[in-house]
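Page 37, continued from 36.
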């Protein structure tokens, strides 16, 4: 008998192109430099290259319709004709202009994302709202439904791309976002409307698409229902049964691979196994333990797709170790009803490790990007299909890399592990309680009521970006670049003094990115040249790679802080990124728990805090912009995460004296469910996003009787709009209904780096005027 490979799937691949070709094409199209045909031709060539690459690497279950010009949720909305009225669509094929208006707003209003989920309100038609796709850094366009919502087939993209692949010689398994996850992720303008109730109206369109796919020769489709890894209510479980029941009834011979990822099925296992589908994909990286239960309970004929290669991280697998685990599945079920796959679509990892000539060769040998992962999958498929011999060299190399990584001194620093292991409770507590500290700080700073400050960054102008890239290219030398940054900083400090801000910042001009800047100065981090991952639309990020024990060879920010403070007598905030945010925005090592890696970063940041204090910094801000987004998908896991996340913040912040004021900043607006943790962080001052929610989110702080000081953002920095004094005063009055005057600061929602100086100048002048007006009402009241 000749050995045959077990089918190998990818579930989806990166769309952006190895050299970010899609970004270039999109931006050129948006700016009017190229036409629609050119954009579509680039997109087609990226798809073709993707299909060819997969086939060449031994992938046998190749996806189609995983490509998107912007976002797959947006594509789904367009497919089913769920286009909000504002975009003026009246039926027929959805024009590209409408598609991009939904994505980016009309009249060029583009998103800016300094924060977790901000978007530009712009002028003209606003873009649809955007938010994070589960616990990834990918942002999707939030579907928007109304009570009169109807659905109609408005795009044949899924069918077109299936046929396109076929004409190139690839028989693909088209990917559709499942109807239940699609509705669950949507929101409704009418509070009375539960999006899920739209399922009966939506299903005919899905069935129409599936019917057309089947008529054109598709035998399998992949339907993604990642909502199955969330805590689901009964209504959602029933909706899943309805949806897949209808599909099975309408198309009895079309096989559905129901795809779940980003976690285990847990208590939804029964629901998943009861659906009339031909296949079920499991994330066995996040939830390896579910394999046994599934092997036990899955009906005989169900094809299991085993997601064993990590689609969310960049580490090379230990293939022989994986094989040992998988053999069990093969013994139990035979090879006919198994497929091998990544845990989720490869969309979330960079494309090709071979584009990284600068990486340390050892580190490189431990990594695997999308292309390498396809090769790993194919190797597994061959080995499991009985061809272990044919891939023995690959297996040996894989085991060897795993062993080398485990033993490497580049990864393991005994001093760091020893220090992290001995973090004593004293390292997690300030000397005194907040009330005592507040007293000491009041005496030291003597700030007016409603003190004003900003969050850290000032506009990153084209000049700043130009200087940075010239410096990176080597056309601007160290001295000239430093001089440029000093001038920029000085001007910004002087301007803040001039308009009368109470607590100043240096502007962060020397920072490329709030995580990368620190990663580059810490040991244990590496950076790629082309390791881009889509964040949203044409915006890609290059997350740092945290590969080893973390330490801080030398101070990272003290020099810039000292320079900035030397320019003024006003307090200058030291400005740091917190450990949880650094962790959550990096590719993190998988050989230690996340909490362990985070504690190491926390200790490094603690050293920096200490050094800033010694240098004279009286206020130090530690940003935890990404603390909330690190929350596990299942509520039962929140506490464990929050416990270590808070502990890490306290490790960095608790080494200072009572008179040193610790600030933190968080750019999101939901605190109700994590307010205990926020309070436990015990920062002296926290600045948060509140302007868009009209201070509603302060309710959490009020009900909780949050004792420390708060700067509720009064200036929405996601919008180019300049807020008036009256508006900001109104917002502060709302804040004063919920919090004591002595607790309140006046500041913007977030950093100003994405704004223009023309917007920032009048906005901050107005903000200072707002604080002054509030102070004078206090004075009048006292008379
Ligand atoms: N200090 C950072 C800044 O002002 C904070 C950014 C953020 O919270 N995303 O840009
Ligand atoms: Zn922010």
């Amino acid at each position: 008998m000749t050995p045959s490979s077990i089918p190998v799937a990818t579930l989806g691949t990166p769309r952006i192109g190895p050299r970010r070709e899609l970004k270039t094409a999109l931006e050129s199209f948006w700016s009017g430099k190229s036409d629609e045909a050119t954009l579509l031709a680039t997109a087609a060539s990226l798809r073709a290259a993707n299909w060819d690459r997969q086939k060449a690497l031994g992938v046998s279950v190749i996806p189609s319709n995983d490509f998107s010009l912007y976002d797959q949720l947006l594509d789904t909305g367009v497919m089913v004709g769920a286009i909000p009225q504002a975009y003026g669509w009246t039926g027929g094929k959805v024009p590209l202009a409408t598609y991009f208006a939904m994505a980016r707003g009309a009249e060029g209003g583009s998103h800016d994302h300094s924060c977790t989920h901000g978007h530009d309100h712009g002028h003209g038609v606003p873009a649809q709202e955007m938010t994070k796709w589960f616990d990834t850094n990918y942002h999707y366009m939030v579907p928007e439904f109304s009570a009169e919502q109807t659905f109609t087939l408005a795009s044949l993209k899924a069918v077109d791309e299936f046929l396109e692949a076929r004409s190139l010689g690839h028989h693909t398994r088209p990917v559709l976002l499942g109807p239940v996850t699609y509705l669950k992720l949507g929101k409704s303008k009418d509070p009375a409307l539960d999006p899920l109730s739209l399922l009966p109206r939506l299903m005919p369109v899905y069935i129409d698409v599936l019917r057309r796919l089947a008529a054109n020769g598709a035998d399998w489709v992949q339907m993604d229902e990642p909502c199955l890894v969330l805590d689901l209510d009964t209504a959602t479980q029933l909706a899943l049964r309805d949806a897949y029941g209808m599909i099975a009834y309408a198309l009895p011979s079309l096989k559905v691979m129901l795809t779940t990822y980003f976690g285990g099925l847990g208590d939804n296992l029964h629901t998943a196994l009861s659906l009339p589908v031909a296949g079920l994909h499991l994330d066995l990286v996040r939830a390896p333990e579910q394999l046994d239960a599934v092997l036990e309970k899955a009906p005989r004929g169900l094809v299991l797709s085993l997601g064993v290669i990590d689609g969310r991280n960049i580490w090379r697998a230990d293939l022989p170790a994986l094989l040992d685990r998988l053999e069990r599945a093969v013994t139990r079920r035979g090879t006919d009803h198994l497929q091998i796959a990544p845990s989720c679509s490869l969309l979330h990892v960079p494309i090709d490790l071979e584009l990284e000539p600068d990486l340390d060769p050892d580190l490189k040998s431990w990594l695997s990007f999308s292309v390498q992962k396809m090769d790993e999958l194919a190797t597994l498929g061959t080995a499991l299909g009985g061809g272990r011999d044919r891939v023995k060299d690959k297996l040996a190399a894989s085991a060897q890399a795993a062993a080398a990584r485990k033993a490497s001194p580049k990864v393991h620093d005994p001093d760091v592990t020893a220090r992290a292991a001995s973090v004593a409770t004293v390292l997690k507590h300030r000397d005194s309680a907040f009330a005592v500290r507040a007293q000491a700080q009041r005496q030291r700073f003597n700030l007016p009521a409603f003190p004003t400050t900003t969050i850290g960054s000032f506009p990153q102008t084209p000049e700043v970006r130009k200087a940075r890239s010239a410096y990176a290219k080597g056309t601007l030398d160290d001295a000239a670049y430093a001089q440029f940054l000093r001038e920029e900083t000085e001007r910004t400090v002087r301007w803040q003094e001039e308009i009368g801000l109470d607590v100043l910042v240096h502007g962060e001009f020397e920072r490329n990115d709030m995580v990368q800047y620190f990663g580059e100065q810490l040991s244990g981090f590496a950076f790629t040249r082309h390791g881009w991952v889509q964040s949203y639309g044409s915006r890609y990020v290059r997350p740092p790679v945290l590969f080893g024990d973390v330490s801080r060879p030398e101070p990272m920010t003290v020099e810039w802080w000292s320079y900035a403070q030397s320019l003024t007598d006003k307090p200058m905030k030291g400005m740091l990124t917190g450990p949880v945010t650094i962790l959550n925005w990096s590719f993190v090592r998988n050989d230690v728990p996340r909490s362990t890696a985070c504690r190491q970063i926390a200790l490094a940041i603690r050293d920096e805090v200490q050094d800033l204090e010694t240098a004279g910094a009286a206020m130090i801000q530690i940003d935890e912009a990404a603390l909330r987004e690190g929350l596990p998908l299942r509520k039962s896991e929140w506490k464990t995460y929050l416990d270590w996340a808070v502990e890490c913040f306290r490790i960095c912040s608790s080494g200072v004296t009572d008179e040193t004021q610790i600030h933190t900043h968080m750019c999101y607006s939901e605190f109700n469910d994590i307010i205990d943790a926020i309070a436990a962080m015990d920062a002296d001052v926290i600045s948060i996003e509140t302007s868009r929610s009209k201070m509603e989110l302060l309710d959490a702080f009020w009900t909780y009787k949050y004792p420390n000081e708060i700067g509720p953002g009064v200036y929405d920095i996601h919008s180019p709009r300049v807020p008036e004094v009256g508006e900001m005063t109104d917002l502060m009055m709302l804040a004063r209904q919920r919090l004591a005057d002595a607790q309140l600061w006046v500041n913007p929602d977030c950093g100003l780096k994405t704004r223009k100086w023309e917007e920032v100048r009048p906005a901050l002048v107005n903000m200072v005027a707002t604080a002054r007006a509030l102070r004078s009402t206090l004075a009048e009241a006292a008379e």
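The first strand starts at residue 62 and ends at 64. Flag for discussion at group meeting. The domain at 21-407 is CATH 3.20.20.210 (TIM Barrel).
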